[in-house]
Each structure stands twice: as C-alpha cells, then as structure tokens.
Amino acid sequence: MNDIPFQGTIQSIGLPQLLSHFRSQRKTGTLVIKSLAFTKKVYFQKGDAIFASSTYEDDRLGEMLVKAGKITLEQYDKASEVLRETRKRLGAILVELGYINPKDLFWGVKYQVKEIICSLFQLEEAEYDFIEGTIPTNEVITLKMSMGNLIYEGVKRIDNLTRIRNEMPASDTVLKLSADPATLFQDIELSSQDRKMLSFVDGVKTLKELIDNALIGSFEAMKTLHVLWTIGVVDEKKKAPETMREQAPEHTETFSVGEILQSVTESEEEFIKKADQLFLKLEVLGEHELLEVNEHADEETITKNYYRLTREFHPDRAYSSADPSLQDKLTLIFDKLTRAYTYLKRIQEKQQTAPLEEEKKETIPVSNGSDSFKKGVEAFRTGNFSGAIDAFRVATKLDPENAKYWSHLSLAFTRVQNGFEESERASLEAIRHEPGNADHLVNLGMIYMKKGMKENALKQFRQALTLDPENTRAKKGIKNISG
After folding, report:
1. SS3 letters for 308-335?
2. CA distances, 239 to each of 172, 175, 176, 200, 236 (Å)
C-alpha cells in the first residue's frame, strides 16, 4: 500500500486502509477529513493516532461525558456558563466544580478522541488530506491505543453490507495467517467469537467458506475478516503456477493461532528490564546472537526464533506500559531483529543455491563479519581506534551491505587524525545501504560539524528530521549551529 495518495476520498481508499497505511509507514502528521457537515482531524505520531478534534458539536467533551453518564445535563450547562466567562478548558472547569475527578477527566478525553476516530468509520462520502510533519504538542492527555484495536472497534460499527463486501477480496480468495510478525503479533483484543473465527483461517478455506461456516452470522463474520485482513493479521494466499505446484511443497507454519493470541504472563517491570538489557546490547550483538541461534542453525530454527522474539518485543506491547521511552526502544529492537533475520535468511538462500562443487570445496564456515565487528567494538572501547578501523574494515569487506559496519567504521575514523575523508565515505556507504535510517544522516551531519562545514551539516540534520521528526540528535545539531 505504498502508493496510497495523501489526498483523496474516503470512498476510494477506505478509512481502515488509510489508518493501517499510516501505521505501517510510521507517519507523523495530521489527517484532515471533511464532509458537508463537519471537519475532523486525527493527529499521528510515528504511526500512532494520539489525538483528534472535530467541528461537530456532538463530539465535544461535555456532550461525550453526558452521553457516557459521567456528568448530568445540569452540570454540563453550569460548566458551560463558567467556560463562557473564563475561557478555561471545559475539563478543567468540571474538575474545579467537583463534578468529575482528574481520573474521570483523563478517561473522558481519551474516550472523546476514540469516539471521534471511530465515528469516521461510518462515513461513506468525505474528502481526506494528510499533512505530513509536526503536530500540535499542547495536548497532555493523548490516546494510547493500538491501531489494530482502533480499527477493530471502528469496523465493528459499520452496518453497510455493500461497503464491507466492496472493501474485501473476491469471495474465492483463500486466506492464510500473515508471515509478517509486525502485523501478526500486533495488539488487538478480539472477542471470544472472533478468536474462534480466526482459528478457522488455515490457508485452505476460501473467504466464502469461512463466512458460510461461521458461528457468528455472515455479516459479523465478514466484518471480523475485514478487520483481520485490513490490519494484516490474515493475508491472501497466492496461487502457485500449475507447473510449480508439485515441485514447491506448502510452507508449514512456525506458529499457531493459539500462540498468536496467547496472553503475556510476565510483569511489566520484568519485561521493561528485559527490553532495556537487550536495547543496551543491540550495537554489539551479531546476527546469530541477536536471534539466539548458533552459526550452524538451520532455516527452520532461525525462523522460529525470529517469530518468538518479535512476538516478545513487538512495539505494541508498549501501549500497556507507563514508560514513555519503551515504544521507541521496542521499535528499534524489532527492526534490528528483522534485519538480522533478513540477513541470515539471505545467507541461507545463497548457501542452498551455491554450486555443489563450491560446497565441497568449503571446509570451514564462511565468516559473516560479525566476529570482526565485535573485535572492532572491543578495540574502540579500549581506545585502540586504529585496531577498531582495521577490524571494521574487515567486517565491511565480508559483508559490504551491512550499514551498521560502515557506520562504526565511520565513527572510528573520526577519532584519528586526517580521518575526515574516510569517515565521510564510510558514512555515505551506511546511508546508501540503509537510506531510511535517520541516525546515519545525523552521524554524517556530526562529521561535517566537526569539520566546520555547517551548511552540509544542516542539510543532513534536516533530511534526518524528514525521516524521524522527533530525532533529538538532529534537533540538537540544528540548535547548536543556529545558536
């Protein structure tokens, strides 16, 4: 869904697809939705919908609290009078008057945001415009809810059968569980009936068969599958060409529905401690260490460990935590696990397709650069920068596509005399192999700053902020140059 435009109509794209797209792309910005009756805005921070506003009177906080039974109509009218006199926020007035307590206000604002967003799912005609970039930061209370749960609740409110059918694949489409842990293990609180529905998805039954055999009614089954398909928990099974079906055995799943829906038993404190420990070691762990496998592990073992670890450290686990830094840490851990898995899988594929003669000649395991990288990190820590450069160079030769190795080589060159050109070149290599990583751009900016090339540094910092608007190092770099 990378080709979804930033402007269009809800009826042409579908709100669930829009929200899911912004989440997967980790977008920051404002989604403006306009109908004939109102304008509603949803504010995104790194793919999460964190706040919403509306010009529709019934979406105001006071109306929401009355409908939810938190305040009476008389109390609302009295608070509104004070609002007109003082221009204070209604929530603060309600607390001051003793009609609600701060906990009720916190619940009320989050409830209001959720209701505004969920109401959009019932829209059938409206225009949308996504404005990428920074968003207002004056809201203290923000929605902390996974996109999976938000879409799940929103779609459940749709009562238009034709619309649901139009947004679904063809009835003869075979559905299977997703192979992407980012979507497979996302936080979504399915009802017991919907869990049962998911358990029927086996990679064999068609969409029509799943709906016809559902125990919850065809329309409810269709809405459940619509949610699961939109957020990527289930996916369309591609048909293999007739000539290849006998040659290509069906892939066996490395996980079950029960494992996907299994609740986590460890305490928040234990999990945060475990995540912190792994986060601090990310830069020194090689691919095998990160996935907790030895260098001779087969593809099945690597895959099983990858799914187990990405389930354990999925960024959506941060929604239930009070630690504001946890989601960023989990996102980085998740991305590192995915890169390690992709790399090791590529190595496995190369070994499987290598000519038999070459395999016979091989007497020792081929190093993938991780050992040299670890030696370089150790040398750097002890102040042996020349030794670190030598080790990192070996790592980049063994694995020239690994951006992390180039980034550390660049850093090592900044610590020796006359190392600017080599440092710049290595940093550019890191950017070339991992263009979406804002940290590589920041590192290059720091190199230019050290050399006194302020304009070049500013350019890198600004580009970094387009990828990661909250990158503190980039912001600090711009502030240092501007100040």
Report:
1. HHHHHCCHHHHHHCCCCCHHHHHHHHHH
2. 12, 11, 12, 19, 9
Query: Which helix (H) or strand (E) element contains residue 425?
Result: helix 420-433
- The identity of residue 238, as a single letter, is K
110-139 tens-digit pLDDT: 999 999 999 999 898 999 999 998 887 776
| Nearest Cα residue to 388 out of 418, 422, 419, 413 | 413
pLDDT tens string 238-255: 765 544 434 333 444 555
What domains, with CATH codes, occur in the chain? 7-145 (no CATH), 159-240 (no CATH), 264-361 (1.10.287.110), 371-482 (1.25.40.10)
Mind listing the pLDDT tens digit for each residue in 360-371?
444 444 456 788
Spatial contact of 154 and 120, defined as CB atoms under 8 Å apart = yes
Distance CA 227, CA 241 (A): 29
Answer yes or no: is pLDDT of 259 > 70: no
The pair phi, psi for residue 225, each rounded to 5°, is: -65, -35
